[in-house]
Design brief:
This protein has 24 helices and 22 strands. By secondary structure, the protein is of the alpha/beta class. The longest helix is centred in the first third of the chain and has 28 residues. It is globular. It binds adenosine-5'-diphosphate and magnesium ion. The site of adenosine-5'-diphosphate has 15 residues, from helix 11.
């Protein structure tokens, strides 16, 4: 139960004065459904303005507040701007310029002969001083002078700066005082303000200490919650599994394991013989060979007379894993089944029977394998592929499925930097497959301007004519998914005109049967070219495809590009990846694409990506979309996360039940950041 102190913060935003259903829509778009969300909707930046007595005092390019008296309105004919010629106290002339509809309000707000206070940016236009679209006009000075440092908030359609500022002000005026959850020594050392003050300050001006404190809160909440999961896991009893190796011995692999695979398998076995359930993440780049490591763990479970379940994020992947596992495990005699949402009727019934009576040792599937209607005889191991698709909450749900907590092996191919691993998977032990199986050919990566589209289609033509297969990736970039789908469909149509029936299309809005059909057509070699949005990002394995074209490559993050590129270079043939870029590239985008050319090491790309994005960050721009954080910026994550993690660890060591004063405050923090699943795990919590 959420503590009462937080009730006001979790009140819906439409309880505020002047916020009705109409305003709720744009607010919801920004995620501002509750007062708490508004409080944490920190300004992106601030406009600082200087009040000047006259124009002589002001510099061109400066944001000023000044008293001006309109002398003349001048509407140029047709589409030209509307101009107000105005004079300062000394008789210097400044023109206020308006375009379009804004002229109507300007006419009323700036009557000739009446002094007005005007805020805006002073520019020079030829010999003339001007302010284009003054941001504020007022007949009294005090209201404008209060805007000397004006917060600029992220908006959505239907909202204006004054509106959102008004809403924020209402929320800030009623913030409760909360007890301190940060270690007092740390507070002193960092000279951080208390929670409420920090919020007030962060809305009022660029205040790094306030911002850091608020970011730290978010990081601390996350670390605490993950650590509580870890602790609670430790105290649970699982099923120690002592496999005798009889199934694993029968495994006939056409290759020998890499050192990293052997090490990871040993780490996993070391966990699975313990009483406490395993909670381990297997991190390994695309193609690093995670599947065989997972299979080895699942065979160990089967040897011990228990069952294993492997969860994949999509049906395509579940099917692919199933096929791979069946092939790999052919000589072992284990019973492997596939269960997805598509299975209905008799086939489904028989799988459910097999899971219940234990005749199925290993089941692979989508989340269908954990529905209430599915019962296991003895589920002892859960493997979760592409872990990043599932939140911590879901992971916890899975853990409740067995009578005893099953061992959990999570796998991810998303190479993330070490700090972010801590943030996302802090409750788990980590095994890294940092060594690729031998014999991989490097992928020849080239960056090309989109102007060379004809050359690209030519190269693609030759590639397909030579019997090769290829991917064509269209980005998901616009606000609306349907626009992106339309773009992908248009590209598909254009390429189909060229290549006829050889082309297949997959995107996220296709029915899963159609998606699978297209994928199967491509995987079976019937289709030569697969046009796709990022739905192919994860896991798809078609070794015959050795060419990939990625459109608008600059729109993707490095990690995502790396994932996509990982679809090629899977066979023994040389692979090529063409990154098509637009003309106007930012410096960061240029560097990113250059890095893609330079290296194929996913862990390195991840670290560099974080550097590139972290460094270039402006105040409050939320580029941390791939992190579990809304407030902490990448830079703050880098510097403050280790501190938060340490602080969380110390707190749990001293007061694991969160019962002391600071512990109680920390509970509030967990609720505030909706990491309360952490609290639920506390006994009597
Ligand atoms: P991941 O799931 O980590 O992306 P996979 O498990 O799908 O990678 O393995 C990629 C490919 O490498 C598969 O074809 C697999 O059979 C092969 N493979 C795995 N381990 C080795 C190894 N040690 N030596 C050679 N090939 C391997
Ligand atoms: Mg895989």
């Amino acid at each position: 139960m959420r503590p009462d102190e937080l009730n006001s913060l979790f009140t819906e935003t439409d309880a505020l004065e002047g916020v009705g259903p109409k305003l709720m829509r744009p607010l919801e778009k920004l995620g501002l459904t509750r007062l708490r969300d508004v409080a944490y909707h920190l300004p992106d930046r601030f406009v600082e303005r200087r009040a000047v007595a006259d124009l002589d005092e002001a510099g061109v390019g400066e944001n000023i507040i000044i008293a001006l008296t309109p002398q003349k309105h001048s509407a140029s004919g047709g589409r030209g701007p509307f101009r107000v010629i105005a004079e300062d106290e000394k008789g210097n002339i400044c023109t206020l310029t308006y375009f379009g509809r804004a002229s109507y309000t300007a006419k009323k707000e700036l009557p000739v002969g009446e002094k007005r206070w005007v805020a805006g940016r002073l520019d020079q236009y030829g010999q003339m001083l001007q302010i284009v679209h003054p941001e504020h006009v007022s007949s009294d000075s005090s209201s404008l002078l209060a805007q000397a440092c004006e917060p600029i908030y992220a908006l959505s359609e239907g909202l204006t700066q004054p509106r959102i500022a008004g809403i924020a002000a209402q929320v800030l005026a009623q913030l409760p005082q909360l007890p301190e959850w940060i270690d007092s020594g740390l507070m002193d050392r960092m000279e951080w303000p208390a929670w409420r003050d920090a919020l007030l300050l962060a809305h009022k001006g660029a205040n790094a200490k306030a911002r850091d404190r608020l970011a730290f809160d978010e990081l601390l909440a996350n670390s605490l919650a993950l650590m509580l999961v870890r602790e609670s896991n430790r105290s649970q009893s699982g099923t120690p599994l002592h496999g005798d190796g009889r199934l694993r011995d029968k495994l006939q692999l056409p290759f020998s394991l890499t050192g990293a695979q052997k090490r990871s398998i040993a780490e996993i076995e070391g966990d699975m013989v313990q009483d406490a359930p395993m909670l381990r993440l297997l991190q390994g780049d695309v193609g690093s060979g995670k599947t065989v490591v997972a299979l080895s763990a699942m065979l160990l479970a089967a040897e011990s007379g228990a069952q294993a379940a492997m969860l994949a994020p999509t049906e395509i992947l579940a099917r692919q894993h199933f096929n791979t596992l069946v092939k790999m495990a052919a000589g072992t005699g284990v019973e492997i089944a596939l269960l997805t949402g598509r299975d209905k009727g008799k086939p489904r019934e028989s799988i459910l029977m097999g899971l219940l009576d234990g005749s199925i040792d290993i089941v692979v599937g989508t989340h269908a394998i954990f529905q209430d209607t599915v019962s296991y005889k003895e589920l002892a191991l859960v493997v979760i592929d592409e872990q990043h698709r599932f939140g911590v909450g879901q992971r916890l749900m899975l853990a409740r499925k067995g009578r005893r907590a099953p061992h959990t092996l999570a796998m991810t191919a998303t190479p993330i930097p070490r700090t972010l691993t801590l943030a996302q998977y802090g409750e788990m032990d980590v095994s890294r497959l940092d060594e690729m199986p031998p014999g991989r050919q490097p992928i020849d990566t080239r960056v090309l301007s989109v102007d060379r589209m004809e050359d690209v289609v030519g190269a693609l033509s030759r590639h397909l004519a030579g019997g090769g297969q290829a991917y064509w990736v269209c980005p998901m970039v616009s606000e609306s998914e349907s626009d992106d789908i339309a773009a992908a469909e248009a590209r598909f149509a254009a390429l189909a005109e060229h290549f006829g029936d050889d082309v297949a299309l997959v995107h996220g809005q296709l029915k899963s049967e159609l998606k699978d059909a297209a994928m199967e057509k491509f995987a079976g070699g019937e289709a030569k070219l697969l046009v796709a949005t990022t739905v192919i990002e994860v896991g798809v394995d078609v070794p015959g495809a050795t060419l990939m074209v990625i459109e608008q490559a600059e729109r993707f993050g490095l990690a995502q590009l790396h994932q996509l590129r990982g679809r090629v270079g899977r066979g023994s043939d040389k692979s090529v990846c063409l990154l098509l870029r637009g003309d106007a590239l930012s410096e960061t985008a240029r560097k990113r694409l250059a890095l893609m050319r330079e290296t194929q090491d996913g862990f390195r790309l991840a670290e560099e990506d974080l550097e590139l994005r972290g460094g270039g960050e402006l105040l409050g721009t939320r580029q941390s979309g791939d992190t579990p954080f809304n407030i902490a910026s990448l830079e703050q994550i880098q510097t403050l996360l280790p501190v938060a993690h340490n602080d969380a660890r110390l707190l749990i060591e001293r007061d694991g039940g969160l019962k002391g004063d600071r512990g109680e405050a920390a509970r509030l923090l967990l609720y505030l950041f909706e990491r309360d699943w952490g609290v639920q795990l506390l006994r009597g919590g």
